[in-house]
Specification:
Chain lengths: 406, 406
């Protein structure tokens, strides 16, 4: 009985991500470099793992007191509590008031997925989403697939080579009433106190719903508290918001991606209702989140000695990234590369703009086998002693070759 | 600036599951019993974990050769391969022909979630879903939330106290052309060869899309191959289908719930297209699946000695369940409980119908503190030496007390 396939009309999906990485992997050029990894890399070119994670992983596997039952759909209670305290501070008033909570989520997309599903169902007035460009590819599509109209905004000024807080203020002024604003790398928004006050006033009066993304707390400045200070300021000013808190990168447990969808509400009653709806969504998505990642994170956060060791690890990583940036700048200076390169060290965290234009990026990718996203935002931890000379010389060449074309 | 909560209209979600368990937990009656756990329980009343899992877990945590990078969105390749071979047999012709594949999924709902999302997008003619009643609560709501019209069917005949294959044939005859049929506990469908042939002919001519659920291969008959023989028959007969394959219960890694959405297509080209679309969906759902569960399963399945040990564990568990059922039947016989109780030992697997009517179930729950789902389908592994006397005496009492009321 010959049958026509039920899948006959299913086309091959366009690749959303990974084509740059795929091209890189296929490339046989000996000096090729990939500067677009999502995660923090070591000097040896391996994904960074906090040393304390390795021993905790072993400890967790050996612990005879653990059971292997299903977690409740909401997730591991102690993990949620420890993660919230990490985000908002141990003595956060909002935690005491029981108006912040979270759902244990899976992978690096789970928190955004569940948050977007909630907004679709329960915040029906919001049809439009403004999303920071760095988050567009990863999270913008989730909103888009759910029927939201998604616009991208950028706070990097490619002419002046700096993060421009005025651009952020303008975005908030211009976006429509009642829309959703997705804010990533908030540490880079260096506004003054009065600018923040003005911004918050506009946000409140326009009833803009904020969706923060904290993908790697501690890896921006090396200081866990500093990295979320502004988030705490929003809480203290009576904002309600969602926040996708990912723990994978901060601990180097990429293979056990865990996180939270964090909910900040005005009252514990509202929080309870929102969490109960999120739980329904989680039940349909995965029913029970996996435990290993959450157990590792919780073991470290709840043990002062392990936590101190982890913080120390984070600081070393961030210092190392700063050192790489200094070296890149210094090497470009010694090569006499035209232009100022201060913006490299002025940006915090693993990722930052090289400050190259489209032609220069294309030159690096096509001619020099250095793989960089089109917007020129690279992961500086991918640069190390083995490739820094080739990379800086290539940048120099790209700038010189394309000099006349601007 | 006082603000009205954006969450003001969000109601408390109704609890979908767990209310029976909640009532049980709150109950202070010393002899209370809960017979509705999803997982296989030990004689000590703990969730069963295959012994080989414990040492593999430790081995995985100690393995210095493992890296902790993100898995690709599709999941762990070796895990997918090993799981497919477990389901279809190592020498499956369909695997050789490269027309079966799978996406590594999260938790006990992930595979169904991603499959339903795909069907919504790419099998638009199918609006109606017929789902086996045992799966209705867990998976029916996922279809429902996605806009499908969901009907429940049952192949248990409460009068004759047996699984009735004719009921299954009738269901397939009656359901509309082009609908989706969700089939669980296929081992219980004891059709003859010619009945299967007739059934398949009807399914094909009505273009019914099959969505199998294999939640605990090996725990039905104790024989891994026997548990999926009919699935393999469907493959050999040229069916295309989806199958939610969960590995959590077969290994006792409930806390690291992993599985696959298995796709069987008519050709490798179709398979490739379907998998690429599923990958897009997985990217939005969790981006990268967690590894621990998959690593444990793969380590066991790819090591003949460990696999043999695991198979031995499964057999012991199933023999133990059969022993419990025999004892329940024998005790009811000794008590002189009216009726035949052969149906208890005629059903395979952890879960089965006690064969009690609504009043009898209600009597057990309300008067005897024995917590049983309304349909009287219990998890026999929850019965052990400590509670079997109380449970059988209570069943006897329930049958006697409600005797006149039918």
């Amino acid at each position: 009985m010959p049958t026509l396939s039920v899948f006959v009309d299913v086309p091959l999906a366009r690749k959303l991500e990974g084509s740059l990485l795929k091209t890189y992997k296929r490339d046989n050029f000996p000096n090729k470099a990939f500067l677009a990894y999502r995660v923090c890399m070591t000097n040896e070119g391996q994904p960074w793992v906090s040393l304390v994670v390795c021993k905790t992983r072993l400890h967790v596997a050996q612990d005879p007191s653990l059971n292997y039952e299903y977690l409740p759909t909401m997730g591991m209670r102690s993990f949620i509590q420890a993660s919230l305290e990490l985000l908002f501070g141990k003595h956060s008033q909002a935690i005491v008031e029981n108006r912040v909570g979270g759902v244990h989520t899976v992978g690096d997309s789970g928190a955004v997925q569940i948050g977007v599903q909630f907004l679709k169902a329960w915040h029906k007035d919001a049809q439009v989403v403004y999303i920071i460009s760095s988050q567009k590819e990863m999270h913008g599509l989730i909103f888009q697939d759910m029927g939201f109209t998604v616009y991208e905004y950028c706070i990097w000024d490619p002419k002046r080579l700096c993060t421009d807080s005025k651009m952020f203020l303008d975005v908030v002024q211009q976006i429509p009433h009642g829309c959703i604003l997705v804010i990533g790398n908030i540490v880079d928004c260096k506004l003054t106190q009065s600018q923040w006050a003005k911004l918050m006033f506009t946000m409140k009066s326009k009833q803009i719903f904020l969706f923060f993304d904290i993908p790697c707390q501690g890896l921006s400045t090396g200081d866990l508290e500093e990295d979320t200070r502004i988030l705490q300021y929003f809480v203290s000013q009576g904002f309600e918001f969602f926040c996708s808190q990912s723990l994978s990168r901060s601990f180097g447990i990429y293979d056990e991606g865990v996180g939270l969808l964090v909910v900040v509400a005005l009252s514990s009653q509202h929080l309870l209702c929102v969490l109960s709806q999120l739980m329904n969504l989680a039940q349909a998505l995965w029913l029970n989140p996996p435990t290993t990642g959450a157990r590792i994170v919780t073991s470290i956060l709840c043990n002062p000695a392990l936590q101190a060791e982890w913080k120390q690890n984070l600081q070393e990583v961030v210092e190392n990234i700063m050192l790489i940036k200094e070296k890149v700048k210094e090497k470009l200076r010694l090569l006499g590369t035209p232009g100022s390169w201060d913006h490299i060290t002025e940006q915090s965290g693993t990722h930052g703009y090289l400050g190259l234009n489209f032609q220069q990026v294309e030159y690096l990718v096509k001619k020099k086998h250095i793989y960089i996203p089109q917007n020129g935002r690279v992961n500086f931890s991918c640069i190390n002693a083995n490739n820094i000379d080739y990379i800086t010389q290539s940048i120099n060449e790209a700038v010189l070759v394309t000099k006349g074309s601007e």
